[in-house]
Design goal:
Number of strands: 6
Number of domains: 2
Strand content: 5-15%
Largest sheet: 2 strands, parallel
Oligomer: single chain
Structural class: mainly alpha
Helix content: 40-55%
Length: 293
């Protein structure tokens, strides 16, 4: 697939020709004599003269944009004033926001997922709204999101399974429960795999791993394995993760914070932040004691 993509989009054919007289001991400066030329064969030229189609995508594919709440894409120039940018952009709806608005006023639109919208509606770029499609067809594809992107990835996951949302709150809500994050909403809907395999891995590792290595393993799971319920994984294995600190310190709060600080160090060593994951916060005074020690 990669080869076909590179072959199709490699561009026009090129060749460089340079002729020198026969001379001995001639030194050629290839940089100064380089010429960027384009070669067009007679068939290619005739194809263009008669305006024959050069390429075609069938069926047409529309990239559907998505964004987190209040994080719409705004385009502006360096010379634009902030007031003018705000006045110009506040009346424009993104594809996703127009999708919500369409579901509010059109009962037929509520039957379709966001990715199915281009089959039944057309996107009007000038008015920034969806209109009923009258002819032809088109396939919709949500813009890709990596699991490492966090909430943006889970928003994409939810949009692929939820119909009739009229606002972001409808996506946050599952079984009449308003969740604080898209991740928890996706977990409640069963769209994220459970932590059984990760939990079993930590159980086995706790039998022979040193405590510091066990906390490093937990941090690696946060970064690379994307556990569905981080709080539950933390609660189930907290005793194993904190065994050495519980023997050394009598204060439960200090023990918890010492474990979190160790995990934070491992997470930050992989260029990530502990605050990006659903874990408890580190107390400031405990953090200071840890740094001084």
């Amino acid at each position: 697939m990669k080869y076909l993509f590179k072959y199709v989009y490699k561009g026009h054919e090129k060749q460089v020709i340079h002729i020198d007289k026969d001379q001995e001991n001639i030194v050629i400066n290839e940089i100064q004599k380089f010429q960027d030329a384009r070669y067009i064969s007679p068939p290619m030229e005739l194809w263009r003269v008669f305006s024959f189609p050069l390429l075609q995508i069938h069926p047409c594919v529309m990239a559907l944009q998505k964004h987190l709440p209040n994080q719409q894409l705004v385009r502006f120039k360096d010379v634009d004033k902030m007031e003018d940018i705000v006045d110009r952009e506040k009346e424009k709806n993104s594809m996703l926001m127009s999708f919500f608005e369409k579901n509010k006023v059109d009962s037929n639109a509520r039957k379709h997922l966001y990715k199915e919208f281009p089959k039944h509606f057309t996107w009007n770029r000038s008015n920034h709204c969806w209109r009923t499609r009258k002819h032809k067809s088109m396939i919709g594809r949500l813009v890709y999101a990596n699991p490492a992107e966090g909430e943006r990835y889970y928003l994409r996951l939810l949009l692929c399974h939820i119909t009739r949302p009229t606002c972001f709150e409808d996506i946050y809500t599952t079984n009449s429960v308003l969740h604080p994050t898209f991740r928890k909403a996706a977990l409640d809907r069963g769209l994220i795999e459970t932590n059984d395999s990760l939990s079993q891995c930590l159980v086995e590792a706790s039998l022979f791993q040193f405590l510091n290595a066990l906390r490093r393993l937990f941090a690696m799971m946060l970064i690379f394995c994307e556990p569905g319920n981080v709080r539950k994984l933390w609660a189930d294995h907290y005793d194993s993760l904190s065994q050495d600190y519980r023997k050394k310190y009598g204060c439960p709060e200090r023990v918890q914070n010492m474990v979190l600080i160790d995990i934070r160090v491992f997470v930050e060593s992989m260029s990530k932040k502990l605050s990006d994951h659903d874990l408890l916060n580190v107390s400031a005074h405990i953090d200071l004691i840890k740094r001084l020690s």
